[in-house]
Amino acid sequence: MESKILKIVDLNAGYYNNHVLKNVSFDIHEKKITAIMGPSGCGKSTLIRCINRIHEMTEGAYVNGKILLRGKNIFDMEATDVRRKIGMVFQRPNPFPNMTIYDNVIAGYILTGVKLSRSEKDEIVEDSLRKAFLWDEVKDFLKKRGTFLSGGQQQRLCIARALAMKPEVLLLDEPTSALDPRATFMIEELLLELKKEITIVLVTHNMSQAARISDYTAFMYLGELVEFGPTNRVFTTPKNPKTEEYLTGKFG
Amino acid sequence: MKRKIFDKLFKGFVILLTLLSVAPLLLILFMIVKNGITVINWSFFVKLPAPPGNAGGGVLNSIVGTFELIVLAVAFAIPPGILTGVYLSERRSRFSNVIRTIVNTLQGLPSIVVGIIAYLWVVRPLGGFSALSGGFALSLMMLPVVIKSTEETLKLIPYSLKEASFALGANYGRTLFKVILPSGMGGIISGVVIGISRIAGETAPLLFTAFGNPFLNVNPFKPVDALPLLIFNYAMSPYKSWHEIAWGASLVLVVFVLLLNFVAKMAGEKWKVRF
Amino acid sequence: MRGDRWLKVLLRASGAGTAPLALSILITLIFGSLPAIKKFGLHFLSSSVWNPVTDHFGLLPFLMGTILTSILALLLSFPFSMAISIFLGVYHPEGPLSKIISYLTDLLAGIPSVIYGFWGLVFLVPLMRKLELSLGIPPYGVGILTASIVLSIMIIPYTASLSREILKMVPSEIVEASYSLGATTTETILKVILPYAKSGILAGIFLSLGRAIGETMAVTMVIGNSNTLPSSLFAPGNTMASVIANEFTEATRSIHLSSLIYIALWLFVLTLLVNLAGNIIVTRMEVIGEKKNL
Fold first, then answer.
1. Angle between helices C194-214 and C144-169 (to 10 degrees)
2. What is the per-residue pLDDT for C293?
3. Are B182 and A110 in contact (CB < 8 Å)?
4. What is d(CA C71, CA C31) in angstroms, rounded to the nearest whole number?
5. How far is B259 from chain A (nearest CA, A)?
6. Is B21 on the interface with A (CB under 8 A)?
């Protein structure tokens, strides 16, 4: 029996009069990759932005419902604590341009005011960069600013930055949509390696990506969760006709 | 054919007018350098003014005074200027649009009016002319420049950076001080330096605040001289030797202002952060 | 999180703080002018007598001086600043020549106004005196026209850099369309680019006017400081700013001081209106520009 690390219960969210998420409920399994799919505007990004509680930073945003992290509602916790336990990687790589590669990796500690010793820092930087498959490429430039890196390298730096906080869950919002196929392949390999240790939630509009690497798939349409189940099952025998239409390219 | 000739004529006319408008500048610069360079020597920088009619003397008092006024103005203008700039860069609401209009209004305030305000707010309560009141007047002139350059710089910083910081669990304060402000450092510094270059040559706000002082003074509660004040007073005097000193002071002031503009450009380039 | 709240309050407060700052400037000016307002009221605006000995004070000579010098300066500088902006915006948008010219105009903007005044005093005033002698009018040298000329040189870079930005905003599609129809460069400038940019240029004119109205030192040094209505363009006069600069520290009687502050109040209102007009045009253009991008 697998344990369920996150339970999303009756989640509703949106901006002003725009009701984006409607009564979304499903569970996320620990140390698995869950893909969230759907046509653009279906609310998949909003959903994972709720899990990291970054959604509510936007002007006019609202959210209600529950998201339980190991049984505890994240909306009852301090938002900054939630974000440290649940890391997030965005669509476009966004390393901090004012910081060196080294500082970018430990940015989470710098930004939350956690003091680390020299050796702790070195260890976290090397460990995180190794996990992000980036160590060998940047180990000689750690004290340089990361802006000369390629898009794929920058995105892996952002993953390393999220991993450095030792999160329990890693959220990725279309992390490869701005990258070329080679860089995409590398990140997919990386995610498969990472799921041995942490839970991954991946928003993607790329069906084959979801099919390749995810264990579970959630399919969303117009703000509602239309279908959720093991990826194999969802792709081979979809229960909902909308899912089938999407998978066969009828819309989206 | 006629059209082609007209085309050529018009272009020639535009070029002629362009060159003509650059001419007075070259003339002014030429006169400043030609008349200024002859009086500038070591003692010009380290001596106090000589009495009228006596040759020699320097402008140490007004150089020191100008620096003192700039330091005071920067100290008064930077904290509220940067904070307001940060606030305005955050979001566009009806309220912030009102503030923006007010900042524009402050920027359009005639310098002589600023002088009167500083006189009524600082000189009168303190009971006399002072460097402090002059610094305050100059800070009023500098404030809108700092606000605007901070706002413009920070607006260019992509929202994704802020988001990345929040997603790591940072609060607003650390996001501001560790991510946003460092990324905009170049622009903010160059804005401050441009602000300094604007106020370094201001005279009108100092007429009834810093007032002028033929002696060396660093006490902020006493009147001080400043290079532009000295140029004004000496230029309006009938003495030829004072005119010469005024040319020298003009050269020093122009070089200083141009240097500041150069530094501002360099600062913008050097700390420019690519996104 | 508590610190965060304080920080946000601080930011908001300093932003909001500009409002009371501007308001107290206005209130201070009104309070300072109260004695003069009580004594002269709106008659102040139409009275052309300014006599500190008899305590008669009126704004008209200085209002006329300000309007004459700034309008004249605008008219004198307009062809030149338009030429610079066409030169830099159309003929030579890039390259070393444009760099030199734009660098020089920047320099022109950076020179302190007191130095312009000094230069005017030493170079322009004797020249004007010669001109006046040859015309057979009293050779003051200083006067309304001299001040306008100095002022016009000072605002050239300001108007030029504003209208150059405006010309750059003209979309290249419509310029190319004009060329493709066989128009010459001149025809394109006169019939396509300038009409397209006209409201921007108008905004630039208003903003430059705001500057000219408030300019103090250079004008004070060459206008002749006469507190009577100027009889001709060659006659000495005073502007609202220059009379304050001249008399403020010498005003021993409180009604004199208050009248000077009253002038400052009108100067404030005048520049406010002119700048507001310029800013409204600019904002409206930005809105139109944004809509076009959609």
1. 140
2. 43
3. no
4. 31
5. 27
6. no
Determine contact, residues B163/B125, Cβ cutoff 8 Å: no
All structural domains of chain B with their residue ranges: 1-39, 40-270
* Architecture of the domain spanning B40-270: Orthogonal Bundle (1.10)
Query: In chain A, count of helices (H) and strands (E)?
Result: 11, 10
Domain ranges of chain C: 5-15+61-245
Give the residue among C149, C125, C154, C144 at the shortest CA–CA distance from C65: C144
Single-letter code of the amino acid located at A111: L
Instruction: Give the H or E element holding residue C50.
Output: strand C50-51
Q: Give the model confidence (pLDDT) of C83-113 as tens digits.
A: 999 998 888 878 888 888 888 888 888 899 9
Q: What residues contact C52, with CB distance under 8 A and at least 6 apart?
A: C247, C251, C253, C256
Q: Which residues pair with A63 in a beta bridge?
A: A13
Burial of C136 from C-beta contacts in 10 A (0-12 / 13-18 / 19+): exposed
Q: What are phi and psi of B273, to 5 degrees?
A: -105, 130
CA distance C181 to chain B (A): 14
Decide: helix, strand or coil at residue A145. strand
Which of B26, B87, B111 is the closest to C11 by Cβ? B87
Instruction: Mean pLDDT check: name the lowest of A65-74, A217-226, B120-129, C83-92.
Output: C83-92
**Four-residue CA torsion sign, A102, A106, A111, A113:** negative
Q: How does the average pLDDT of chain C come out, rounded?
A: 88
Residue at C270: amino acid letter: L
Burial zone of A230 (CB within 10 Å; 0-12 exposed, 13-18 middle, 19+ buried)? middle
C182: nearest CA partner in chain B: B3
Q: Which helix (H) or strand (E) holds C58?
A: none
Average pLDDT rounded to a whole number, residues C46-62:
91
Place of tokens 């000495």: C236
Q: A19, A12 in Cβ contact below 8 A?
A: yes
Q: Which of B25, B102, B172 sits opposite C104 (nearest CB)?
A: B25
pLDDT at position B123: 94
Say how many C-beta atoms besides its own lie within 10 A of residue B263's C-beta.
17
pLDDT of residue B109: 93
Q: Rounded to whole angstroms, how far apart are CA atoms A54 and B14?
A: 56
The ipTM estimated for the assembled molecules is 0.91
Q: Does A60 touch chain B (CB under 8 A)?
A: no
pTM beyond cutoff 0.90: no
Query: Mean pLDDT in each 10-residue stretch from start to end of chain B (275 residues)?
Result: 84 92 90 92 86 78 95 95 91 82 90 96 94 96 94 89 89 89 90 93 94 88 94 90 92 94 84 63
Q: Count CA within 13 A, CB hemisphere, residue B4.
A: 1
- Pairwise CA distance, residues C282 & C212, whole Å: 19
Q: Between 3.30.420.40, 3.20.20.140, 1.10.3720.10, 3.40.630.30, what CATH number should domain C5-15+61-245 receive?
A: 1.10.3720.10
Please name the residue that has the structure tokens 């949509």.
A177
Q: What is the crossing angle of helices C144-169 and C125-135, to 10°?
A: 120
**Is C53 strand, coil or helix?**
coil
